Amino acid sequence: MAAEAFRMTDGETDRFRGNRIARLIGLLPYLAGCEDAERTSLAHLGTFILANRGAARRAFDHKPSDDSEVLGRLRTISDFKGGDSAILDRGMALLGLCMLSGYRRDADKDRLTEEYNPIVSGAWEPEETDRALRKMPGAKSADALDAILTPGEASVLYWQP
User: Fold this and answer.
1) Phi and psi at residue 22, to the nearest 5°
2) What is the pLDDT of residue 138?
3) How far is 52 from 107, CA to CA, in rounded Å?
4) How far is Cα 97 from Cα 148, in angstroms, rounded to an integer?
5) DSSP letter string over 65-109?
6) What is the pLDDT of residue 94?
7) Per-residue CA distances from 109 to 115, 142, 145 (Å)
8) How many CB atoms lie within 10 A of CB 67?
9) What is the DSSP letter of 140?
10) What is the pLDDT of residue 150?
């Protein structure tokens, strides 16, 4: 539905379907048993797509105001109605690991281009941030989340639809 709503090409749709981060974003409300899971899933996937397209990307880029809370930048995809909080916390932490992975990957480029990056600015110490994100609450359906994305895998993936 999200691919259709954003009028993705066949190639974009195939890449989107294969994207494990998008899969986690879309399935998290269902796995946690949230009310209005379909609506939440589509809204969060729409934000994910929008945040990765054209000039709209700038609105979602990390800013110094996002530094104080590790998952602050993800607030637009962290609104859930009900659901198992341990599963939601674990899923968001996995997404945070993916985000941190992108900051690590882009650090040298961001230094050169002077794009804001919390690792380059010194606001975040990458190993400490990684450890904090890995201290995820346990969840009954950790196996379901791990089938989509494990913490180890999340640490090497990055945001890209």
Assistant:
1) -60, -40
2) 63
3) 18
4) 14
5) GGTTSTTGGGGGG---SS--HHHHHHHHHHHHHHHHHHHHHHHHH
6) 92
7) 8, 35, 32
8) 16
9) T
10) 84
User: What are the C-alpha distances in Å from 106 to residues 23, 72, 76, 110, 145?
Assistant: 23, 19, 22, 6, 26
The 3-class SS string of 32-55 reads CCCCCHHHHHHHHHHHHHHCCCHH
Residue 137's nearest CA partner among 82, 94, 83 is 94
| Tens-place pLDDT, residues 53-110 | 889 889 999 999 999 999 999 999 999 999 999 899 999 999 999 999 999 999 999 9
- Among 33, 30, 35, which residue's Cα sits nearest to residue 45? 30
Q: Which residue has the tokens 């791990």?
A: 146
Mean pLDDT score, 139-147? 71
| More confident position, 35 or 17 | 35
Distance CA 93, CA 99 (A): 10
Contacts of 42 (CB under 8 A, 6+ apart): 1, 2, 5
pLDDT for 42-64, tens place per residue? 999 999 999 988 898 899 999 99
**For residue 118, pLDDT beyond 60:** yes
